[in-house]
């Protein structure tokens, strides 16, 4: 009987995440927040997640604003393939699919692969994007 109770208690306890596990969870949630901000066409939320040291930060903001002004609806799906932790940086390898639609217009679909460099020191911030940046994609330009 004692063995059964111990087994039941072990099964009912919540597993404890390691520090790395919590960091991966936080980074994954952060990437999802960026995705939601872009889909909602919320410039403030999007740029709040972008580090001030992000290369070409102003160009990213300008391009995103052009896209937000031109399209009424954005669908972005970011699929995280893996997360690599090294010191205070998380590297997120991802694939993305996006569709932009303007009222009355045909949707434009693009996809790409990106590597996000995320600073994890205080709260996660996007420090760089290598590859196809979904937030700076120009759907109106030829692929």
SSE map:
Blueprint: H1 2-12, H2 19-39, H3 43-48, H4 57-70, E1 73-86, E2 89-101, E3 108-119, E4 125-131
Antiparallel strand pairs: 1-2, 2-3, 3-4
Fold and architecture overview:
This protein is α+β, with helices and mostly antiparallel strands and 143 residues long. It has one domain (19-136): Nuclear Transport Factor 2, Chain: A, CATH 3.10.450.50. Helix content is 36%, strand content 32%. It is built from four helices and four strands. It has helices at residues 2-12, 19-39, 43-48, 57-70; strands at residues 73-86, 89-101, 108-119, 125-131. The chain has a four-stranded antiparallel β-sheet, with helices on one face. Strand 3 (108-119) and strand 4 form a beta hairpin. The longest helix has 21 residues, at 19-39. The protein is globular. The model has no long low-confidence stretch (mean pLDDT 89).
Q: How many strands, which pairing sense, and closed or not: the largest β-sheet?
A: 4 strands, antiparallel
Which structural class do you get from the secondary structure elements? alpha+beta
Average predicted confidence as pLDDT: 89
By DSSP (H or I, 4+ residues per run), the number of helices equals: 4
Please tell me what the overall shape is: globular
Overall helicity: 25-40%
Q: And the CATH topology?
A: Nuclear Transport Factor 2, Chain: A
The multimeric state of the shown protein is: single chain
Q: What is the radius of gyration computed over CA atoms, rounded to a whole number of angstroms?
A: 19 Å
CATH class: Alpha Beta
CATH architecture: Roll
Number of strands: 4
First and last CA, distance: 66 Å
List low-confidence stretches: none
Q: What is the topology, as strand order, of the major beta sheet?
A: 1-2-3-4
Following the backbone from N to C, one meets helices and strands in this order, namely HHHHEEEE
Number of discrete domains: 1
